Structures are given as structure tokens and as C-alpha cells.
Amino acid sequence: MSAGRAASSRVAAGVVVRLGRWAVGALRTASRLAAASVLAALGILFLNYVVLSTDKARTYRDLDPNVAECRDGLAWGWTILADAGRETLQTATPSDGDGWVDASNDEGAVVAADARWATRLRCALQRHVVPAHAPGGRDLAYHLGFIEFQEDGEPYALVSREGAGDAAIDSAMLRHAMDDEMRAKGMPATMVKPVITQLDALKKHLSHGSHYVIAFVHGWRHDARIGDGNVADLRLYAAHAARFLAQRCPTDPSVCDMDVTAIYVGWRGARVDERGLRTWFGDAVGGFFGGLSAGATLFDRKPVSEAIAPGAISALRTIETTLSAPGAHNKLIVAGHSLGGNMLATGLQDDVVKAVRRHRFGETLPTVLGNLVVLINPASEASKWTAIQREVWSHLADHADAHTPASEVVRDDGYFPADQRPVLMSVTAALAFPAGGLRSGDCAWIGLDVEDGFTAARKRIRSRLAATDRMFDAGIDYDWATHDLFPTFKFDFRPAAAFLDRVAARFEGRSPRGESCTPPRPVSLLAGLATLPVRTLSLLAATFPFQNTAREDSHTIGNLDPPRPAAGVLADAQPSAAPFGTSHELMGLDAPGLERHHPYATLADAAVDCPRSDHWLTRARLARADRRSNFWDSADLASGGSSEHGPAARFLHGLQLTGIAPITRPNDPFWNVRAFDNALSRHDGYRLSSFICALNQLVMDDITDAPSSMSDHRDTQVP
Questions:
Q1: Angle at the Cα of 199 (from 198 to 201), degrees rounded to 5?
Q2: Helix H or strand E segment including 336
Q3: Do the strands 573-574 and 424-429 form a parallel or antiparallel pair, or are they unpaired?
Q4: Strand 372-376 relative to strand 331-337: parallel, antiparallel, unpaired?
Q5: What does the alpha-carbon distance between residue 394 and residue 386 come to, in Å, rounded to a whole number?
Q6: Are 700 and 245 in contact (CB under 8 A)?
Q7: How many CA atoms within 13 Å lie on the side-chain side of 418?
Q8: For residue 204, how many other CB atoms are within 10 A of its CB?
Q9: Strands 140-148, 259-266: pairing kind
Q10: Which of 208, 458, 499, 661 could covalently link to 573 via disulfide, CB atoms 3.0 to 4.6 Å apart?
Q11: pLDDT at res. 711
Q12: Among candidates 299, 294, 298, which has minimal Cα distance to 275?
């Protein structure tokens, strides 16, 4: 017995020793893995913040307009970009998809061909010309200016010679410029203000003449360096605006001498040098690693965009004041894309809430900045918009109940008058129709063939769902960055889980649940096994504990749809219990020549028609008078008016055919628009001529029965 116990003890001791050795080995392995993870994390941080980092304090367009080459360019205008672009288009592969790249609008190619342009394109104020080549054509000319900000919101100083750093402007040249201005104006030196910053140069340029100004705040992964794609996008917008004004000139002489000036608000939105990676390693490898490295910088750049917001807004208000001189009839549209939209939303939120709080019933709400502010795919929390909606909502009778008579609801339709124009608009490339998806009983109702008053509505719903199916088959071009990526960084993984479900459904050849009434195809065993890891990861993401479930904080402005009521069908208009979020829709019109991309170099000759669209908004509201103007549609206008044209894209009030009553009144000046991909697609697909025309029509034309200008709005401001 004792021998047996001794053997058992030896076996037990051996087991304990082996377990101890295994535990020590496991601990060592875990330690090595932890150390490797820490080193990998540190390596990634070092790679992102040191090796691949862009300059922290660098201005790219800082050359004083008084420098000889800048001065000559302003006097004669540069055609180099359009000229080189036309040559490039002759050999470039045509592309008209949503990932469209304009081969005719490339600063980098111009610099590569002639290094002198590396200096010229540094000018803080430039004049560009797109020549017309067709007989009887008219050249398009515009100015391009820059305002750049450091990460703390401070502006940069101009420099007066090539190769100068970020020091203050050369004092000798400054004195020379002041002397010239003093002699020209016959003013004493004490009254001459020196041009020291980019903003000073723009103020001087805009202080005389008639101007149509487009200010653009770029977003994530961009800056003002030569060759940046967002600078090219602004040039495309400016050339379009010049073309649209030229079209209006024969019938409206007041715009014939109006100078188009595009203002690029630059900041360090690109912390990773993606262009350098592509240059070093090629588009495929360098582009992949550049995108991977940049992906981690979204919320590194977001706080910076918010820190810069006060400086950017103050600069834009200075521009607005300059344009609002007595007797002036200038126009200013301000747009912000991605984190640029977040910058505007952050900087204007308190001012807009205050304007609503001070608003008097029945009076026109004045503009908040310029003539119109547009946020394009803004990477900004929905709460920055719903704060404004809640302020409006608190002043209105939302719906009739035991305590609120219907007459009070109708009366509050006049909180904003019938001639109210939009003053703040957000436009986001939405995922699908209908907003919020389909319920299990919707498809059965849609398939009914009975006369119940909803026959026409069911037909329209079937048509839209068929379009959604086609979009799924071709790939839905929605804004993935603000719909899925933004919430993920906000620790809300539910949109990412839905994205994984769509990936799995696409591989399986089926439409995602809740987005189609097409009967699902049977899934093969192989496809089911292949998508099992994706489905599992989706389930884990959707049910991950302690994630952020406050949708207004984790979803972006254009990706927060109001919840659908429990009662009713898609053709109903039941009030939502949380009437906050998206309020309008935007669709393309399939207009010939407009609903496509037009290369920059061809715009002077291209078949781009953007006619006046006067009074369309008033007529759209009148066409729905039987519904208190709710669900107005720019494609359905009441007869009359000096123009029979509606806007170049289709605007709709409310989320039509979704079972949700409009969450805003028909005259509400705050439009949170969910756009379909034939008008606005992906994160950067805002370059369709139809979309550019539609935005400019909101400012160029008298879309209501009351003509509007910045000075007119300023006269109506509440003291």
C-alpha cells in the first residue's frame, strides 16, 4: 500500500511539475505576445506619427499676391491646367463611374512638366481660365484663394519670396506694397492696412466689384498642398459656377460682370502622407498601406477640425462682412465636406440655436452665414443637428392630441413663412430606400392587389424597391465612411455589423434582410460555410456589451433617420415619436447632359444646361396645398411663375413612402437630406454636374416668391 501511495504521489508530483512547466511556458508565451503587441502598437504609432506623418505646421499656398509671378497670373489668368488637361484627356481612359477621377484637373502633372509651376501655384490668390474651343464659345474665368489654419486655429502669414519659410512677410516688400497702395488711393500711411495674411489678400480682392463666392472647407485626408484632390474639386465647382452665370447673363445683366471667387479653407486634415506612399511604392501597394494608416486618424483629426472651427468661422464671417458692403449684391455659398462639414456644424451650432430661440413667429429666419451653408457627407455627430431641430420643435405643436387641438398644429405651420428659403442644409449619400428598412409585413402589403386607396403608392414603392435591388446588384454607393466607420470609432458597432451582413448577403447572392421584397435565394452549403466567419463576427459586433447605443452621439447627421411609428403602412404618414434626424430626400432626374461628370478642361464647351429655377420652392409648396404643403416635391410644381424649370436634382420634403410623417414643417429652413446615389454617391461622389447645379441654383436663383440677397437677409435680422 505504501509503495502504491508513493507511486501515486510521484505521478501526482509529475503532473504538478508538468502543469507548472506548462503554466510557466504559457505565461512566457503570453508575455511575449503582449510584448509583441505593445511593440507592434508602438511601431504603428511611430510609423503613423513620425515616418508617414505630414508636417505639423506647414502652409502650402502662402505666396503674397504682390510677388511678380502671382501678380502676372492675376492680370492675365492661367490656362495651363485646362490646356494640359485637354491633352491628357486625349490619351486618358474615360471613366464616368462614382470613383471618377478628373484627368484634366491635375496640378501635379503641370508641376511635373514645368517646375516653375511649383512656385506659381503657391500664390495665395490665383486667377484661372478654362478656354472655349467651340465657335462662339465663351472662356470661363474665376479666382481661387486660400485660407489655411494651424492645428490651434491660428492663421498663417504670407511670404514674399520663393523658398521663404513661415516667418512674417518681408518688411521691405511690405513697405513697398503699402507705398504703392497709398499713392494709388491718395491716402495717408496710417489709413493703409498691410496685406499680411491670406485673409487680408482675399478681403482686398473682394472689397471691390461684384462677386459670387464659393467657400469650401475640405475634410479628412486632405490639405492645401499642390495636387490635392479637394483643391481640384473646388476648381471644378468654380468653373461650373462661371458657366452657370454665363448662361444667365443674357437674361440677367446683373450677373454678367459677377466674378466667381472660390475660397479653399485648408487645414491639416491629412496626417498621413498617402501621396508619398503612392509615389514610393506605387498606387496599389502604397495606396493600400496609405489607406490603412490613414484609417486610424479619423478621430485624431476630428478634434483638430473642432479646434479650428472658431478661427474658420470668424474668417468666413469676415468674408461675409466684406461682401455685405452697402449697395453690394454679392452671393456667398459655404460648403464643408466630411470633417470640414463637422467644422462648420461645430462652429455654427450655437449661433443657429440662438437664432431659432430669438426667431419671431411668421418672420423669415435670416441666413446664418452667407446665403447658404451646405454640409456634404458631414462626419459630425447627429446631436449637432438635432440640437437645432429640438429648439424648433420646442416652439411648435407637433401633432394633435387631447391637449393640443388640430387648429394649433395648422397655425404653427406659419412659424416660418411661405417664402422661407433654406439657410442650412446637410446632404448625405444614404444607404437604401425606405429609410429604416422594411418590416416583415411590408412586403405582404406591397404585394396586395386591392383598391384600398393605396394602389398608386404601392406602384411607386415597387418601383423604388426595384431600383434598390438594382443598386444592390451593382453595389450600393452610399457613404461608408460616415455610415459605418464613424460609429465604429464612437464604439457603436451595430452599423459595422450590418455592413458585414451585407457583405455576406452579397457573397451569397441575396439582398440584405429588410432591404428588399425579392424572395431570398437558397444558400448553398459552400456559400454558407464561407460566410459563417463573417456572420459570426457580425453577431459579435451587434451584441458587443457596453457599446455606445446613443444614436444621436454615435451616428452622423445624415445617417440618423427618425424611427418609424409602430402603426400604419409605408404609404401612411404617421407621426414619429422621436421626430429628429433626416428630413428631406434628394434624387437624380436623369437629365441629359447634366447627370454625369464633365471634365474640368471641357466645361467651357460641354453641353451643361443649368437654367434659372425661379420660384420652384414656392410652387412646390403650393402644389401640395391640400396637404398643408407637406411632402412637397420639386418635380411636381404648381403652374405659373416666370420659370417652368425646377432644380437640376429632385428635392422632396419628408421621407416619402416610408410610413413616417414629415418631422419638419414645409417651410422649415433646415434641410437634413438623405441622397440617393444618382445624385450624391460614396464619400467623395459630389462632382456630378446636376448636383453642382442644384446647389448653386439655391443661391443664384430666386427660388421663392421673395428675392433674396445677403444684404436683404441682414436687413431682416432680429435686433
A1: 65
A2: strand 331-337
A3: unpaired
A4: parallel
A5: 12
A6: yes
A7: 14
A8: 15
A9: parallel
A10: 661
A11: 46
A12: 294
List Cβ neighbours of 423 (8 Å cut-off, separation of 6 or more).
Answer: 365, 366, 367, 368, 372, 373, 669, 670
Count of residues in the chain: 719
Contact yes or no for 426/664 (Cβ under 8 A): no
What is the rounded distance in angstroms from the CA atom of residue 215 to the CA atom of residue 545?
A: 43
Alpha-carbon dihedral 118, 123, 124, 130, rounded to 10 degrees = -90
Contact (CB, 8 A) for 378 and 342: yes
Q: Which of 569, 655, 589, 644 is nearest to 614 (CA)?
A: 644
Cell numbers at 474, concatenated: 451593382
Three-state secondary-structure class, residue 399: coil
Beta partners for residue 63, in sequence order: 123, 159
CA nearest to 688, candidates 584, 553, 593: 593
Amino acid identity, position 652 = L
Please tell me the predicted confidence (pLDDT) of residue 283: 79
Half-sphere exposure of residue 592, counting CA atoms within 13 Å on the CB side? 1
In this prediction, residue 49 carries a pLDDT of 60
Phi (first) and psi of residue 401, to 5 degrees: -155, -165
**Residue 532's CB: how many other CB atoms inside 10 A?**
11
- The pLDDT value recorded for residue 93 is 63
Neighbours of 142 (CB within 10 A): 26
User: What pLDDT shows up at residue 714?
Assistant: 42
CA-CA distance, 538 to 550, in Å (whole number)? 20
For 518-551, give the DSSP string: SPPPPPPHHHHHHHHHHHHHHHHHHT-TT----H
**HSE on the CB side for 66, CA within 13 Å?**
23
Check residue 55 and give its pLDDT: 87
Work out the angle at residue 274's Cα, subtended by the Cα atoms of residues 269 and 279, and round it to the nearest 5 degrees. 145
Angstrom distance (rounded) from CA 320 to CA 590 = 35
Pairing between β-strand 125-130 and β-strand 140-148 as defined by DSSP bridges: antiparallel
The C-alpha cell that represents 277 in the structure block? 506612399
With contact defined as beta carbons under 8 Å apart, do 127 and 290 qualify?
no
Confidence at residue 512, expressed as pLDDT on a 0 to 100 scale: 76
Reply yes or no: is the peptide bond before residue 422 cis, omega within 30 of 0.
no
Contact 232, 107 (CB under 8 A): yes
Those residues with Cβ within 8 angstroms of residue 193's Cβ, 6 or more apart along the chain or in another chain: 200
Question: C-alpha grid cell for residue 600?
Answer: 474640368
| CA-based radius of gyration for the chain | 29
Cα 266 to Cα 198: distance, rounded to the nearest angstrom: 11
Contacts of 607-610 with CB under 8 Å at 24 or more apart are 608/240, 608/243, 608/689, 608/693, 609/247, 610/240, 610/243, 610/244, 610/247, 610/648, 610/689, 610/693, 610/696, 610/697
Q: Among residues 188, 235, 234, which one has the least CA distance to residue 82? A: 235
Helix (H) or strand (E) holding 673: strand 670-675
Residue 394: the pLDDT is: 96
Residue 50 DSSP code: I
Residue 461 class from Cβ within 10 Å (0-12 exposed, 13-18 middle, 19+ buried)? Answer: buried
Nine cell digits for residue 504: 455576406
* Residue ranges for the chain with pLDDT beneath 70: 1-20, 23, 26, 36-52, 92-99, 161-195, 470-476, 591-595, 640-643, 707-719
The C-alpha atoms of residue 529 and residue 86 are separated, in whole angstroms, by: 51
Q: How far is CA 269 from the centre of its chain?
A: 14
CA nearest neighbour of 260 among 374, 371, 144: 144
* H or E segment to which residue 40 belongs: helix 2-46
pLDDT at 466 (0 to 100): 82
